[in-house]
Write a structure and sequence with these properties.
Layout: E1 2-8, H1 13-22, E2 29-35, E3 56-65, H2 70-81, E4 89-95, H3 109-112
Antiparallel strand pairs: 1-3, 1-4, 2-3
Helix pairs in contact: 1-2
The chain binds adenosine-5'-triphosphate and magnesium ion (MG).
Adenosine-5'-triphosphate binds next to strand 3 and strand 4.
């Protein structure tokens, strides 16, 4: 299992969610966050409202998937979030040792989707 974390532009969220749905990826956590990339918020200010400390408003998606869904999750996020401009965002892939559905006690692949 993998834990896919993506930080994207807020205005790309709807498209990314649509692409994920088309890829049969429905379970997702979305958080409003602030962040800065390698331009440290400076050159990107025309795209997003700038916050304190060079931070810009971003959206973070977290998706736990079985290994076979990793590449389609990446493709969906990239297709939905890519504009070619700086600040399009980044995707991080982490190994995920365990997942437990609290209601049933299921674990692993049974619990993840
Ligand atoms: N190495 C990192 N560690 C933690 N968060 C990061 C990292 N890189 C990017 N982020 C997060 O992703 C957001 C978007 O990053 P961004 O797309 O600006 O990356 P970048 O490396 O500056 O690439 P680009 O040159 O395309 O802008 C940042 O505002 C930050 O929240
Ligand atoms: Mg950047």
């Amino acid at each position: 299992m993998k834990y896919v974390i993506a930080v994207i532009q807020p205005d790309r969220l709807e498209d990314v969610l649509e692409k994920l749905t088309e890829s049969e990826i429905h379970l997702v956590t979305v958080t409003n966050v602030m962040g800065r990339g390698r331009q440290q918020g400076v050159a990107e200010v025309y795209r997003s409202h700038k916050e304190a400390g060079s931070l810009l408003k971003k959206v973070k998606l977290e998706i736990a998937v079985n290994d076979i869904f990793v590449e389609s999750a990446i493709a969906a996020i990239q297709n939905g979030a890519h504009t070619g401009q700086i600040g399009d965002g980044k995707i991080f892939i982490l190994d995920l040792p365990e997942c437990i559905r609290i209601r049933t006690g299921e674990r692993g692949s049974e619990a993840i989707g």
